[in-house]
């Protein structure tokens, strides 16, 4: 199978919480005082509707990363026309919890 189109969004902020990371794409789940908890839920639903998936991971360590933080990396993966994505579950990537949601 050929590689799938992937859009990566990476930041160098405080990163994603390790606790309940798998719930971040559920509606109304938020870690922010004024958050609605709908942003990632909407993205996950759109990806699911198109046969894709969203992956939430810690960003790779970079020289400009804030001390004590790694940042977050969000991957949006779509199937090629006429193909489907292989089914994936939450995995561990080098000891870092990784969640796969959709498809």
Quantity of strands, as a count = 5
Order of helices and strands: EHEEEE
Radius of gyration over C-alpha positions, nearest whole angstrom: 14 Å
Largest sheet: 5 strands, antiparallel
Instruction: Using the alpha-carbon principal axes, give the shape.
Output: flat
Q: How much helical structure, as a percent, in the residues?
A: 10-25%
Pairing-aware structural class of the strands and helices?
alpha+beta
Number of helices: 1
Poorly predicted segments = 90-97
The gist of it:
The protein has 103 residues and is of the alpha+beta class. It contains one helix and five strands; from the N terminus they run E-H-E-E-E-E.
Describe the protein in words.
The chain is of the alpha+beta class. Helix content is 11%, strand content 26%. The chain contains one helix and five strands, in the order βαββββ. It has a five-stranded antiparallel beta sheet with strand order 1-3-2-5-4. It is flat, with a radius of gyration of 14 Å.
């Amino acid at each position: 199978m050929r590689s799938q189109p992937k859009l990566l969004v990476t930041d160098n902020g405080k990163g994603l919480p390790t606790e309940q990371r798998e719930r971040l794409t559920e509606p109304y789940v938020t870690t922010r005082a004024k958050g609605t908890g709908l942003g990632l839920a909407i993205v996950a639903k759109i990806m699911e509707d198109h046969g894709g998936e969203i992956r939430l991971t810690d960003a790779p360590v970079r020289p400009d990363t804030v001390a004590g933080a790694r940042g977050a990396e969000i991957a949006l993966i779509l199937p090629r026309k006429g193909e489907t994505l292989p089914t994936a579950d939450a995995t561990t990537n080098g000891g870092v919890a990784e969640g796969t949601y959709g498809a």
